[in-house]
Amino acid sequence: MRRFFGLGLRKRGCRFLRIVGLNNVKQFSLILLAILATSTCGHANLGDSSDRVDDLYGNLVQRRLGDDGTVSVLYHKDRYLYQVTFADGRSISETYFNLKGTDLTEKEIARFLKANAARATWTPDKTAKERRFKRSDGKAEATYGKVNGRPSLTVREVRAKS
Questions:
Q1: Cα distance between residue 133 and residue 144, in whole Å
Q2: What angle do CA 103, 91, 143 make, to 5 degrees?
Q3: What CA–CA distances, in Å, run from 43 to 74, 116, 159?
C-alpha cells in the first residue's frame, strides 16, 4: 500500500484514479457524469440558432409570428420562462421570467447576463430610471423591469443604425 494525501491507495490501477484518490471506478464514473452534465446544460445566447435554443430550452409553450417577420417563442424550463425572439432563424432578444412571477435575484440576473456576455462584460447604466445594463462591446443591452406585469430581464441585440 502506498499513502497519497492521507489515502491508502494500491499501486496497481489507473494512475489518474490514484492521483485524485478514487479507488472505485463507479465513483469516478459518477463524478465524470456530474461534470459533463453541468458543463453541457446552460442558457442559450443571443445569436444562437432556433435549433440550438429549442435544444437548450426544450418545452415550447407558445409561438407567435410578428408582423415584421420575427418569431417570438415562449419556453418553460426548470423554474423559468424564456421568451425568445428570432429574426432570420437566430435569437435577437431573450427575456427571462421566474415561473412564480417573483423578482429575479441578483445572482440570477448576473447568471443570465453572463450567459450573454460573448467575451464582453456587463456594466450597469446608472443614467436610466429603470435598471439597465450595457455590454462592453456595444452589441447588446439589457433591461430589468416588468414585461406583461411580471418582473423580467430582457437582453437584446443593439442593431447598428442605418
A1: 8
A2: 35
A3: 14, 9, 22
Is the confidence at residue 145, as pLDDT, over 80? yes
What is the distance between the alpha carbons of residues 27 and 131, in angstroms, rounded to a whole number? 45
Tell me how far apart the alpha carbons of residues 60 and 111 are, in angstroms, rounded to a whole number: 22
Q: What is the pLDDT of residues 69-95, one digit of tens each?
A: 999 999 999 999 999 999 999 999 999
Among residues 60, 38, 57, the alpha carbon closest in space to that of 48 is found at 57
Alpha helices in 4-105 (DSSP H): 15-20, 25-40, 50-57
Residues 151, 102: contact at Cβ < 8 Å?
Answer: yes
Which of the residue ranges 12-21, 51-60, 84-93 has the most confident prediction, judged by mean pLDDT? 84-93
